[in-house]
Amino acid sequence: MKSPLKIYALTKDQAAGLSLTSATGLGGAASSGVPLKGLKEKDDYVIVSPAGDKVVVHGLKGSRKGAIELMAGEHLIVQDLTLLVLRESASESPSNGAIDDLTELVAGFSEPDDLSRSMQTLLDKLLRLAQMEKGLVINKTLKGDFHVVSQKGVSPNDPWMSESLVLETLDSREPRFVQNIVGSRYESKRSLVATGFISVFAWPLVVRGETLGVLLVGSSKPHSGLSEAERQQAAVYTRLGALMLSFYLRDQKSKEEVQALRRSMQPDEVPLLTESKELLQTCELARRVAASDLAVLVHGETGVGKEVLASWIHQKSDRAKGPFVPVNCGAIPSELLESLLFGHRRGAFTGALADQTGKFQQADGGTLFLDEIGDLSEHLQVKLLRVLQEKTVEPLGSNKATKIDVRIVAATHKDLQQLVEQGKFREDLYYRLAEMTLTIPPLRERPGDILLLATMFLKNFAPQKRFSHKAWEWLKAQEWRGNVRELMSCVKRASVLATSEEIQPQDLRVLTSAKPVSEKNW
To answer: Which band of pLDDT confidence, cut at 50, 70 and 90, is reported for residue 517?
Structure first.
C-alpha cells in the first residue's frame, strides 16, 4: 500500500512540510489556512486538497489559476511560492536537514543573476547527499552550446561534452547511476578515469521537456548506491536546479532582447529610450554639453526621467570618475536641507551631536544634482548663489570656508522664468543654474514612445506575456500624468495581475490614475 502524500511549501524564507487531510489555504501572513514566511503578498495563493494518489491545487494568483493535479514527485510554482508533492513515510520523507537544504535552494530564485553561486549550492547539496567528493554542473547557454558553470575537485577544461555518460544523460533525460566504473562500459572513458572517478551519478536538468544541463557527482571509491528516499530527494534538488537555470536563461534572453530593441530604435547610445525627434535632439544637446563645465537646468514634468538624463551627463563628462550626488530639494524641509547641502559642525544647533559633511563636499570632483530646484526657499537661494559664485562652502556653525570643485545639474517641473517674474526665484541664481537648459517633453506629447517603453517594461517583467490589440489601444489613449514612472508601474502591475499570456485593458486599468486623452473608446 502506498504511503500518503505530503506537500512541501517552499518560499525564500521557509520550507514547510504539510500533511493535509482537507482543503487548506496556503499563503502569506493573512492566509485563511497556513501562513508562510517570505511571500510578497499576504492573502491565499492556493487552496490545496488531498485526493488519494494526487493533490489538487486550486491556484488563486497569477497565470496558474484553476485546478491543477499534482502527483508524487511533481511541483508547481505560483508566483513566489513553490509546491512539491512527495510520499510521506519514515524512509522517504525528507529530514529536517533536507528541509533546510530546500529552503537554501529556493533562495536561489531571488538571485537569478548569480547562476554560478546557485549551481554551486546545488552541487554541494548533491555531494553531501551522495557522500561523494567531486562533481560539476554543465549548463546550456543562450547560443545552445554547453559549458561547465560550477565544479568541485575536477577540471572544467576536460572534454566533458565528449563523455558518453554526459551525452547519454542529456539525450535520455534520465539519471545515470554507476556505482563502480571498473568492469563497466565507462571504464575506458578518458575524463572519468583522469579525474579519478570510480563511482559516478548523473542527473539531467530538464524543464518542460527541454534539457538545460546535467549535474555530475562522483567519488574515487565505489559506491553502495542511493536509497529510494535519497533518489527522490536528489530528484527534487535537481528539479529545483533546473528551474533556477530556466529562470536564469529566461532573464538573460529578456535582457538581450531589450538591448537589441534599444539598439534598433536608437541612432546611437542615448540615455532615454525614445523615437521622439524632439527628445533625441535634447539628448544630442546633452551629449555636447557633457564635456563642458556648463551648469545645466533640466526641465520636465514628474516622472519623465530628469535624473536619468542628469546622471548620463555626469557619466559622459570628464567628472565621470567622481561622485554623482542627487538631492531632492522639494522633499526635505528648508531647515534640514540647509544642513544637508552645506554640512554642519557639532553644536551648530540642537541635535547636532557630530560634524556632518554636506552634499556639496561629498560631490567634490563630481556632479551635484539638485532636483526640484524651484522649491528652494529664498534663504537657501541666497546661500546657493554665494556658493556658486565663490566656489566655497561654509558649514553651519563654522567660520571657515572650504573650497569645492562641483558641477551643478539642476531640475524642475516648474517654470522658473515665470517664478523670476513673480519675484519667487532669484534672477541672478536662475542665470547661474541655466547656462544650458534641456527640456524633456511629457509622455503624452510623444505617443510613439508609449508603446516602445511599454514593450521594454513588459520584456523586463514578464517576457512570456504580450499586449492584446485592445490593450495597445488603451495604452495609447491615456494621458499618463505620471509619465514614464506611471507607465512602468502600470505595466509591472498588469504583468502580475493578468490571468493569461495576453494582457487585456482590464489588467491595466486597476489603480491607474492616467486619464484617457479621448473617451471615445472607453
So the answer is: very low
Confidence at residue 522, expressed as pLDDT on a 0 to 100 scale: 37
What pLDDT does residue 304 have? 93
Three-state SS annotation for 151-201: EECCCCCCCHHHCHHHHHHHHHCCCEEECCCCCCCCCCCHHHHHHCCCEEE
Are 76 and 68 a contacting pair, CB within 8 Å? Answer: yes
Sorted by sequence, the CB contacts under 8 Å of residue 40 that are 6+ apart come out as 28, 79, 80
DSSP secondary structure, 393-437, as one string: E--BT----EE---EEEEEESS-HHHHHHTTSS-HHHHHHH-SEE
Contact 304, 317 (CB under 8 A): no
The C-alpha atoms of residue 197 and residue 221 are separated, in whole angstroms, by 8
3-state secondary structure of 487: helix
Separation of alpha carbons 244 and 262, rounded Å: 27
pTM value > 0.70: no
Please provide residue 467's backbone torsions phi and psi, each rounded to the nearest 5 degrees.
-90, 140
pLDDT at 1: 46
**Burial classification of residue 2, based on how many CB atoms lie within 10 Å of its CB (0-12 exposed, 13-18 middle, 19 or more buried):** exposed
Q: How far, in Å, are 249, 259, 274, 461 from residue 262 at the CA level? A: 20, 5, 9, 16
